[in-house]
Write a structure and sequence with these properties.
The structure holds 2 protein chains of 2 kinds.
Chain A (H helix, E strand, L loop, with lengths): L2 H4 L3 H20 L9 E2 L4 E2 L2 E6 L3 E7 L9 E6 L2 E13 L11 E10 L10 E5 L2 E7 L10
Parallel strand pairs in A: 2-7
Antiparallel strand pairs in A: 1-2, 3-4, 4-9, 5-6, 6-7, 8-9
Chain B lengths: L1 E2 L5 E2 L3 E5 L8 E4 L7 H12 L3 E8 L7 E3 L2 E3 L2 E5 L3 E6 L5 H17 L4 E9 L11 E5 L2 H9 L3 E2 L8 H12 L3 E8 L6 H15 L6 H5 L1 H7 L1 H13 L13
Parallel strand pairs in B: 4-9, 4-10, 10-13, 11-12
Antiparallel strand pairs in B: 1-2, 3-5, 5-8, 6-7, 8-9, 11-13
Helix pairs in contact in B: 1-5, 2-4
Classes of the chains: A alpha+beta, B alpha/beta.
Chain lengths: ~150, ~260
């Protein structure tokens, strides 16, 4: 008998109902990033792990870029609120290196596009590549100030 | 059979199916997917370096309906490898947040039934400036005072306060409850990026504790390849860590 079936009280039922609603809300609000492949055979690209951190003065985007040639890293704005990171690998990677023989294709680039959640000054982007991690600093645009009396 | 906090007997939700003889009085490692996949990378390296063989697997409806193919044959994603002195859990898939408690409870119960002499949880401890750290420092936690003293004798700094969240946290708690000797070795690591250097740092400390001499050269050489291969497991693990409220480890506790 499942744990759920054993619960009898009305409070348990209400609690379960609230948990179900919360779980559904969480599922719908989550991005579907994990539900698509991290590779694209057509463009020969692998998608790197990437994250966006919003600090008080800047937005910091980082990407894990193993097996790349640092000279080939390109960071470019693709709109006012999105950024593309691209880099060429030192050597091509094939599916069979992952033990997968039923798919064909090889990958030569890392590429990802990421949204920037707040307004930033795309003309003042600074980048740094350190120990395999790319760090992109985007200064936040100043909004209006509220005078505190 | 296990019992919940109210004392009601529940059907077993996690079972460990043994395929080969399991040693008694072994050390048991645990490095299930967590921040930086530190424990997973470390245990994977140890399995390959010591040529540990599959001795058991975990069966549970709480795990995703996933089968891993190796050389065309199906395997359970969560398995136990070992030799006569060492056993280790190993997972090729992210552990769903809902499964962590029953799974860890079962692993500790199983360890006790096999008279494991020491449970060692290996993991990462996320730090913001990880890129700037050349040699990640390893911190320790233990299930009893004499093991805390052992960690100090080996030069490992003790985690004295704060929150622990996730698989290794539950190992420490359940081992302490059952009086099973346990330590945790946690290296400074990335949160969302696979961290082979942090994994190597934990193995260095594990060598000191266990007296083993696990070679790290292949792990160091293969660092980039591991980061490349581990992207998908890392992504799914990150999602489950969010569900576990892993960031509570950053919180400052309330001691009145």
């Amino acid at each position: 008998m499942s744990e759920r079936q054993r619960r009898r009280s009305i409070f348990d039922l209400i609690k379960e109902y609230i948990e179900d609603v919360e779980a559904l809300a969480e599922e719908f609000s989550e991005p579907t990033f994990a539900e698509r492949p991290s590779w694209d055979v057509k463009s020969c690209c692998l998608e790197p792990l990437c994250s966006v951190f919003v600090a008080p003065d800047e937005v910091i985007v980082t990407a894990d870029l193993p097996n790349i040639n640092p000279d080939t890293i390109k960071v470019k704005p693709i709109s006012a609120d999105a950024l593309e990171i691209r880099a060429e690998m030192k050597r091509k990677i094939r599916f069979d290196e992952f033990g997968i023989t039923h798919r064909k294709g090889e990958f030569q680039f890392f590429r990802c596009q990421t949204g920037i959640p707040v307004r930033v000054d795309m003309d003042r982007i600074k980048t740094e590549f350190k120990r395999g991690i790319l760090e992109v600093h985007l200064p936040r645009e100043k909004g209006y100030r509220i005078k505190v009396e | 059979m296990t019992s919940n906090s109210g004392g009601t007997v529940l059907a077993e939700v996690v079972s460990i199916v043994e395929m080969k003889a399991v040693p008694s009085n072994a050390i048991m490692l645990n490095g299930l997917p967590d921040v930086g996949l530190v424990g997973l990378i470390a245990t994977s390296h140890i399995i390959s370096e010591l040529k540990l063989t599959e001795i058991a697997y975990v069966d549970s409806d709480l795990l995703p309906p996933v089968v891993v193919l190796h050389e065309g044959l199906p395997h359970a994603p969560v398995r136990i490898f070992g030799n006569t002195d060492l056993v280790t859990s190993f997972s090729e898939t992210a552990i769903p947040a809902d499964a962590v408690q029953p799974l860890m409870r079962k692993l500790v119960e199983w360890a006790q039934s096999k008279n494991v002499k020491l449970v060692v949880a290996i993991g990462g401890m996320p730090v913001q400036n990880r890129q700037d750290i050349m040699e990640p420092k390893v911190f320790g936690a233990a299930s009893n005072k004499s093991l805390l003293n052992l960690l100090s004798e080996k030069g490992i700094e003790i985690l004295k306060g704060g929150y622990m969240v996730g698989p290794y946290a539950l190992i420490m708690r359940y081992c302490a409850e059952r009086n099973v000797p346990a330590i945790a070795l946690l290296a400074e690591s990335f949160y969302k990026y696979p961290d082979p250097e942090a994994a190597a740092a934990t193995i260095r400390e594990f060598n000191k504790i266990s007296g083993l001499k696990i070679d790290l050269s292949k792990l160091t050489e293969k660092g980039e390849e591991i980061r490349l291969r581990a992207r998908d497991v890392m992504k799914r693990t990150e999602r489950e860590l969010g569900r576990m409220k892993k960031t509570q480890e950053y919180d400052l506790p309330l001691y009145v």
